[in-house]
Fold this sequence. Notes:
Helices cover 90% and strands 0% of the residues. By secondary structure, the chain is an all-alpha fold.
Amino acid sequence: MPHDYRLKYVMEYNEMAKREIEQTFEFSKRRFYGLMKKRIIWSSEFDLFMKRTKNIWSTIIRQHVDSWSKILIYRLENFNDDMNRKIKNQKRDTIKCE
Length: 98
């Protein structure tokens, strides 16, 4: 697979990962600020908050890895088909221009 295609796929992955992480961060931040508004926070309540936050982040990361692994495997398996299709389209376009 050419370097430019690998770079394109990695950049798509980075953009999606960035968006998902930002959304999860904002959600966690709102939950944290809600907890901090309380005058008294019991240690068991804080421990539960931390455990839930860790579970949320772990789930998001796991889902992200699973979905992007499937996407990248599909793209790698079908790379030759995509390239053949592009070559056919380019040939067709050059014939139309002539």
